[in-house]
Structure formats: C-alpha cells, structure tokens
Amino acid sequence: MTDEKIARINALAKKSRAEGLTEAEQAEQAALRREYIDAMKRSLKAQLDNTVVIDEYGNHRRLRRQEGKKG
Questions:
Q1: Is there a contact between 36 and 6 (Cβ–Cβ < 8 Å)?
Q2: Which of 3, 15, 21, 42 can pair with 25 through a Cys bridge, CB separation 3.0 to 4.6 Å?
Q3: Contact by Cβ (8 Å): 39, 49
Q4: 69 in helix, strand or coil?
C-alpha cells in the first residue's frame, strides 16, 4: 500500500465527516479500505510466520498454524 493511497483514504474519511461522499467516492473508499486491510493481514501473517519462540530450555521453535484454523 503506497503513501498516496493511505493519504487518499484519510482525505476521503475527512471529507465524509465534513460534507459526505458521492456514491463513486464511497465505492473508492470501500475499495481502498479493503486493499489496506488485506495488506495489513499479509504483513501480520509474514511477521508471525517468521517469529521464533524460545522456551525455558533455550530451544528455538517457529510458530506454526494450528490444524483446522481458518486463514
């Protein structure tokens, strides 16, 4: 997600509070928000996939997704 897109999300949110949005702007805002949320989920997943837990004995192990979990 680029800084320009984040700035556009913020501008649309500010305009929405001040005067309201047209239908086209509402659709643009929804699409940008979805793109932002998807990017944040990918970032968090990548961070968790690279997380290592060290137990009390000094053993290193990677976090793994539990069976049957969605995502």
A1: yes
A2: 21
A3: no
A4: coil
pLDDT tens for each residue of 29-70: 999 999 999 999 999 999 988 999 999 999 999 888 777 766
What are the sequence ranges of the domains in the chain? 3-62
Residue with tokens 């501008």: 11
Residues 18 and 38: their CA atoms lie apart, in Å, by 27
Q: Which residue has the tokens 């060290």?
A: 54
The angle subtended at Cα 11 by Cα 3 and Cα 24, nearest 5°, is 105
Asked if 15 and 25 touch (Cβ cutoff 8 Å), the reply is: yes
| Class of 3-62 in CATH | mainly alpha
CA–CA gap between residue 48 and residue 33 (Å, rounded): 22
Q: What is the pTM of this model?
A: 0.73
- CB distance 8 to 30 below 8 Å: no
